[in-house]
Amino acid sequence: MRISEAVQRVLNNYGGERPGVKANLARLLMHGRTGGSGKLVILPVDQGFEHGPGRSFSVNPAAYDPHYHFELAIEAGLSALAAPLGLLTAGADRFAGALPLILKANNADNLSDDRDQAVTAGVRDALQLGCSAIGYTIYPGCDRQYEMFEEVREGIAEARDHGLAVVVWAYPRGRHLGKDDETALDVVAYGAQIAAQLGAHIIKVKPPSAVIAQAEARPAYEGMDLSGLATRVRHVMQAAFAGRRIVVFSGGPAKDVTALYDEIAAIRDGGGHGSIVGRNSFQRPFGEARDMLGRIIDIHLSQAGGQGP
Amino acid sequence: MRISEAVQRVLNNYGGERPGVKANLARLLMHGRTGGSGKLVILPVDQGFEHGPGRSFSVNPAAYDPHYHFELAIEAGLSALAAPLGLLTAGADRFAGALPLILKANNADNLSDDRDQAVTAGVRDALQLGCSAIGYTIYPGCDRQYEMFEEVREGIAEARDHGLAVVVWAYPRGRHLGKDDETALDVVAYGAQIAAQLGAHIIKVKPPSAVIAQAEARPAYEGMDLSGLATRVRHVMQAAFAGRRIVVFSGGPAKDVTALYDEIAAIRDGGGHGSIVGRNSFQRPFGEARDMLGRIIDIHLSQAGGQGP
Amino acid sequence: MRISEAVQRVLNNYGGERPGVKANLARLLMHGRTGGSGKLVILPVDQGFEHGPGRSFSVNPAAYDPHYHFELAIEAGLSALAAPLGLLTAGADRFAGALPLILKANNADNLSDDRDQAVTAGVRDALQLGCSAIGYTIYPGCDRQYEMFEEVREGIAEARDHGLAVVVWAYPRGRHLGKDDETALDVVAYGAQIAAQLGAHIIKVKPPSAVIAQAEARPAYEGMDLSGLATRVRHVMQAAFAGRRIVVFSGGPAKDVTALYDEIAAIRDGGGHGSIVGRNSFQRPFGEARDMLGRIIDIHLSQAGGQGP
Amino acid sequence: MRISEAVQRVLNNYGGERPGVKANLARLLMHGRTGGSGKLVILPVDQGFEHGPGRSFSVNPAAYDPHYHFELAIEAGLSALAAPLGLLTAGADRFAGALPLILKANNADNLSDDRDQAVTAGVRDALQLGCSAIGYTIYPGCDRQYEMFEEVREGIAEARDHGLAVVVWAYPRGRHLGKDDETALDVVAYGAQIAAQLGAHIIKVKPPSAVIAQAEARPAYEGMDLSGLATRVRHVMQAAFAGRRIVVFSGGPAKDVTALYDEIAAIRDGGGHGSIVGRNSFQRPFGEARDMLGRIIDIHLSQAGGQGP
Amino acid sequence: MRISEAVQRVLNNYGGERPGVKANLARLLMHGRTGGSGKLVILPVDQGFEHGPGRSFSVNPAAYDPHYHFELAIEAGLSALAAPLGLLTAGADRFAGALPLILKANNADNLSDDRDQAVTAGVRDALQLGCSAIGYTIYPGCDRQYEMFEEVREGIAEARDHGLAVVVWAYPRGRHLGKDDETALDVVAYGAQIAAQLGAHIIKVKPPSAVIAQAEARPAYEGMDLSGLATRVRHVMQAAFAGRRIVVFSGGPAKDVTALYDEIAAIRDGGGHGSIVGRNSFQRPFGEARDMLGRIIDIHLSQAGGQGP
Predict the structure, then answer these.
(1) Is B86–D241 a contact, with Cβ atoms under 8 angstroms apart?
(2) Looking at the predicted structure, is the pLDDT value of residue A6 above 90?
(3) What is the DSSP string of E214-249?
(4) Is any Cβ of chain D less than 8 angstroms from the Cβ of A19?
(5) Is residue C16 left, alpha or beta, with left meaning phi > 0 and alpha meaning psi from -120 to 50?
(6) Chain A residues near residue D23 by CB distance under 8 angstroms
(7) pLDDT tens readout for residues C105-132
(8) Which helix (H) or strand (E) holds E119?
(9) B7 in the Ramachandran plot: left (φ > 0), alpha (ψ -120 to 50) or beta?
């Protein structure tokens, strides 16, 4: 297998990294229908843990079964499946080698309103499950943010030492950030920057809104036209070391698919590396989800700024 | 990517193994031109260490360069490249993700006549280099065989614990075995059995001759027609847990390619999982080697017992 | 290379320190345009983490790219680049050996008002990145100051044990200190003293104002003419073990360059060892920043008390 | 400081290595009079340990003092000083930062005829002394060769993990090798190959003679004209991964300086990366040694194949 | 207390060493009647272990009691008492703080003819006993010499890390050395060199004879007049890094006191740092031993080369 030029360009941003980490990044980037394009489309399924099973799966009860998500990711030609220890454990043997896996190694529930996450798995788990990467969530801005950074830093160091890539979900929140602030452009960009500084290879953020949340940050954005999502995505890419780190964007709140496809196109136009779409996919019937993910892949593969999907 | 049925059948023999090990076996079995067939064709390049650089590479000086072997394995569509730490280190970054790698973790030279190997690398090296497997040589029958088994056993345990597959090169030799005995059918089968008992996932042996070396073993083979290599290979497969372990065969001493192709066809007919061909390939000019390896792949992919290549 | 007499005089203050630490201090002191003079001019780039990427880099978008800062520090002939893990990781391979690096190993963001820092990297990271020093921020006076001191003390011990020099950013703040108090002469001097007591080899402080913040400290300064910055810098040097520890001063809040150059001249006249200038440099266009840093170097190299820049 | 193109080309052969290791290689390659040329000239002083102090230093008693060797290496503009723990410890503080140091971490004496070395220092010692590299001797072919390889392998792994470069002195010897065989071309090349396979960044060998020692290796060299040292050096470079690893050559047995300069020129013409000259230098009066080393540097810096020095 | 100039000159040879080690060296050098002179006279009592109690103490039964040796060392104004764990343990409480102690941490008996030593104590023992130094014996040349070097190296590293000084007893012996060779000048010098290379702060050797044992070493001593002990001691000091390491000499085989005093004077004249006299002292009645040690101290304190004691 030849690594494509597009993928090699991405890998070149990780000079000096252990070859095993680069090989795992290559595995993600060469797999599935986006394979070779430098883009990623990932299925994340941690909602059972994060939101509860009923809220997550009752609308499509087939999705209670971990195997369902492996099947969906494979059928749709995705780059990877990302999930907590238990879900991956339930399918890793049956689907061994069929697709890259990302072990989501810390998790929170919503039975309380703690803004924190428990470390629920480790590097050895990831290796035993055959994962290509390990993933951590951080909540920049929350009361326990620095403890989170320290936990994640240790996980990143150990992962790199064992040849695993690291994905960081950067979700700013906290007492000083209102609900709208969490997706404010300056805040999302800040989250991406922090993830990059901690050593993440792949950064996951929410699509940024046109809000600027921090008063001190406003002058920096003065005079910019932030009305287009593509422009805002481009700024997030700047915050991710001028695009030297892979950034993927969540699907954002549920919406009709047309709005979703427009959003994906804007992410593509802004230079984002791809999408990570959970509820918006697995809460639909299998075929519908597969087709929708296929469409998302098509959009990412189409020429940026072209006539779109 | 769907794991093919042929590969799934092979993987099913490893029930209960860590999913990461199975994922790495799947990686080897799904890669290259034999991908999906359940067969493996591997390029091993430890001869610089084992026989010396001049003897190994002077006939084709381009092969002094580690990158050459990565290129050859990729171009020929092989399943993997197997080599010691230094050779892999020299190319693992440049070719990250391009093909499965097997770290040959113990090595011997022939500047002395010790029948032993030095442990020259470990599981952490394999992970940092992005390898799918780690490999060890054992010399059943030699004076230090049990120390070797113990070293290899530790390596196997650590490898499995970190999701790596393990290849064991089983080369019986020692004071009680003459040169011809080393490839005797009973002895080769015995070596394969020991490798399987030590926990090897993939076993590498030499094509067995019709000799029966151990007097005590002779009655067991009485009345069998051992004249055909396919029959002898079939016996080695029996010794490898009735085929529950992957066995690959070396190309044996340099010979004309017709003889080599016949041998490969016999290995295929006997149920061998594939070939591991070093000197016979890289000591030829690049194009010739690539074509020869292509032919070997063709033979393994062709119907067993058919009219052959 | 001969260590210059000026540098040897500085190194002699670190008698009994591991030679590796002294070698790394020598590396910083012998590098760049100030090399050999006993002075240091350092580029610190942790603002993406500390203030957010937009506020830090939007005025000069080229600076979103980590490589930009390596290039700037090299082109301007600086002593070193100081930055968090992610930024250094993004350039350490490409610029290996080109300039001394300082790993800023704890970091804070301003998405919350915590007065604390997360430990985001360690000694092993610093060694693997090829750094000459590791850096920590302390906030003497803040609620978690003692936890910070304890974290930093552990980092210092491990760094020294591995031959790395340690830079401590001493920023007093806390419930008992108003905004103006943070740069009050007595408080800045106090911060420098605490850093020295914790074992810092290099101390970074802000230029002190003429304010005396602590009522109990006022009699100590009675009758002194604190109107000149050089005098105040001289007092900070006293607090840094009578000049036995290297002290570098930040550029302070953005100001016109004439004011900045005057400040640098006063630091020089007061016996400060150098400057550490971040936003004031990288928020300008490359050429302008390089020239400004060149001017700062010239001032530090010129005779103290001379006609200045 | 800009890394020169010649040095960058050498560093590019170490892709995927920790940036700290590359920075230390760069330090060696950018220092002294050969700095920037891609060549190295190193002073090794382990003879007090290996041959005894009287034999080593009585001809030039000033050389009993460890400081003498630091001074000689600095004055002559060499790339580095390599020595055991005690010698480096005696001067590392006084000469901190003045030149790159290589800690020779295993050592033998000649009070017995053991073909083995004691591990006399470790990575932490190297870091505390401010070394850029750690060095090990191997005796491929000796009875304890595999234990030596295993010790060295552990040292290499730990060194790389802490950002240190590794030099391996490859000296084949043993029951199966006569005195003349130890410098035979096939044997020297074999030693270089083994060092490269073990993960050495820099390999030190003796200039190879035209002897071919191993009967099995003879056919590989048939028909080659091995009468010129440059040709033989070129073959050793092939054995060092086609020149992807740095190889330096010892001065060989004492000889008149004209013969030595001719030898150095041949090493240069054959593509060797430099020289490591101990007794031949420090057994002469200081000025004479400095001038001779200067001439050696000149030869390495002059055009290969030109009219020589 | 002011450290005397003579002692400071000695301490300056240990630049870069942990200050705690230097403080312990200073403790030894400032204690007793030689305090401040740069000389040491030490009482070693390991003969009960090394030769058996009867042979060691029956001639002066009071010496069976460990307290006897503490009393003798104190009364005679010695620099330190050196002994194994048990002997020190028996008196360390009673005489806590009364004199510097050196824990002899490896020991051999003569119930067998093994040329090896058992590690019988460690750094923690030394600290708990209030010792200033820890001591190890090495047998350069013996079959297990490299294992001994490796054990001692670990002890030295740990001792330095805990601020303890290290004394190495260097006693070459082995299959290749006859009885006379063990005290041959070249061999004693070689032992001193090895101890220095291993990192010893204080080296203990036997007074060298005029024999040159190693054939290869003879040319190095050609033409030298080795008939005087002072000349030979001077050569041993060269071997100890040109006098940069403290070397003390044993009293040698029992002899009449006049011969002993002459020997001590020659050691003084040759630049030796002092004496370590066991059997020759404690096998005499207390008063006689005290007076003899007093005389030895007088000789070391008298002008070198003067009319002697």
Answers:
(1) yes
(2) yes
(3) -GGGHHHHTT----SHHHHHHHHHHHTTTTTSEEEE
(4) yes
(5) left
(6) none
(7) 999 999 998 889 999 999 999 999 999 9
(8) strand E118-119
(9) alpha
Q: Are B174 and B143 in contact (CB under 8 A)?
A: yes
* CB-CB contact of A166 with A159 (8 Å): yes
Using a CB–CB cutoff of 8 Å, tell me whether C75 touches chain A.
no
The radius of gyration computed from the CA coordinates of chain B, to the nearest angstrom, equals: 18
- Is the CB of C18 less than 8 angstroms away from the CB of E16? yes
Q: How many Å lie between the alpha carbon of D291 and the closest alpha carbon of chain B?
A: 37
* Residues of chain D with C-beta less than 8 angstroms from the C-beta of E186: 52, 54-55
CA distance B51 to chain D (A): 9
E15 vs D52: CB contact, 8 Å cut-off? no
Chains in touch with E (3+ beta-carbon pairs under 8 Å) read C, D
Is A23 close to B97, i.e. CB distance below 8 A? yes
Burial (CB < 10 A; 0-12, 13-18, 19+), residue D12, is exposed
Look up the domain containing C214 and give its range.
Answer: 5-301
Q: Which of residues 24-63 of D touch C (CB under 8 A)?
A: 24-27, 29-32
- Chain mean pLDDT for chain C: 95
- The Cα D290–Cα D282 span in angstroms is 9
Q: E136: domain CATH number?
A: 3.20.20.70
3-class secondary-structure state, position D184: strand
With 0.90 as the threshold, say if the pTM is over it: yes
Task: Locate A229 and state its tokens.
Answer: 């999502």
Q: What is the pLDDT of residues D139-155, one digit of tens each?
A: 999 999 999 999 999 99
* Gap between the Cα atoms of A23 and B80, Å rounded: 14
Q: Which chain E residue has its CA at the smallest distance from C15's CA?
A: E16
What's the burial of B108, exposed, middle or buried (CB within 10 Å: 0-12/13-18/19+)?
A: buried
Residue A307 covered by a domain? no
D43 in any annotated domain = yes
Q: Report in angstroms the alpha-carbon separations of B274 from B23, B233, D37, D63, E105.
A: 19, 11, 48, 62, 59
- CB-based contact (8 Å) between D130 and chain E? no
Q: Which residues of E touch C15 (CB under 8 A)?
A: 15
| Cα–Cα distance for residue pair B143/B176, rounded to 1 Å | 10
Q: How many domains, in total, are found in chain E? A: 1
Nearest to residue D65, comparing CAs of E243, E203, E205, E190? E243
**CA atoms of B231 and B237, how far apart (whole Å):** 10
Q: Which amino acid is at E245?
A: R
**E106 is a domain residue:** yes
- Spatial separation of the C-alpha atoms in residues B105 and E109, rounded to whole Å: 43
Just list the catalytic residues of B.
204
Residue D306, domain member (yes or no) = no
What DSSP letter does each residue of D12-75 carry, written as one string?
GGGTTS-HHHHHHHHHHHHSSTTTTTT-EEEEE--HHHHT-HHHHHTTSGGGGSHHHHHHHHHH
For residues A213 and A187, the answer to whether their CB atoms sit within 8 Å is yes
Rg (chain C; Cα; Å): 18
Closest CA relative to residue D211, chosen from D238, D191, D232: D232
D120 touches chain E (CB under 8 A): yes
pLDDT truncated to tens, each residue of chain B (309 aa)?
799 999 999 999 999 999 999 999 999 999 999 999 999 999 999 999 999 999 999 999 999 999 999 999 999 999 999 999 999 999 999 999 999 999 999 999 999 988 899 999 999 999 999 999 999 999 999 999 999 999 999 999 999 999 999 999 999 999 999 999 999 999 999 999 999 999 999 999 999 999 999 999 999 999 999 999 999 999 999 999 999 999 999 986 667 899 999 999 999 999 999 999 999 999 999 999 999 999 999 999 997 554 433
- Say whether residue C80 is in contact with chain D using an 8 A CB cutoff: no
E18 in contact with C, Cβ within 8 Å: yes
